[in-house]
Amino acid sequence: MALANSVLASNPSIITLNLKDLHFLNSSGINLLAKFTIEVRKHPEVRLVVRGTPDIPWQSKSLPNLKKLHPALVLLMN
After folding, report:
1. Pairwise CA distance, residues 40 & 9, whole Å
2. How many CA atoms lie within 13 A of 61 on its CB side?
3. Is the Cα torsion angle 45, 66, 34, 52 positive or negative in sign?
4. Where on the phi/psi map is residue 11: left (φ > 0), alpha (ψ -120 to 50), or beta?
5. Is 25 in contact with 56 (CB distance < 8 Å)?
6. Burial class (CB in 10 A: 0-12, 13-18, 19+), 40
7. What pTM did the predictor assign?
8. Region 36-47: what's the mean pLDDT?
9. Could you read off the pLDDT of 52-68 as tens digits, one per residue?
10. What's the CA dihedral at 2, 3, 9, 11 to 10 degrees?
């Protein structure tokens, strides 16, 4: 979380999280993604892009929930 927050603190125009090759993520990791998404929502000038794949079950189930937390998030599932 410290790394993610330090990236956000640098005030980038866009942050891309490429998770396409991440085959396993436990509940702590999913919680971290959710908390970071909520934190980015507080910075409307920062565009958050999350890349995933429908071929990995946890991604197809969990990543769409991030859009519920931050509707401006761009979710690319391909």
Report:
1. 10
2. 9
3. negative
4. left
5. no
6. buried
7. 0.93
8. 97
9. 999 999 999 999 999 99
10. -160
Instruction: Indicate the pLDDT class of residue 51, thresholds 50, 70 and 90.
Output: very high
Residue spans of the domains in the chain: they are 31-78
> What does the block give as tokens for 35?
């908390």
User: Is 33 exposed, middle or buried, given 0-12, 13-18 or 19+ CB atoms closer than 10 A?
Assistant: buried
Largest distance between two CA atoms of the chain: 33
pLDDT above 90 covers what percent of the chain? Answer: 99
Using DSSP's 3-state secondary structure scheme, residue 3 falls into: helix
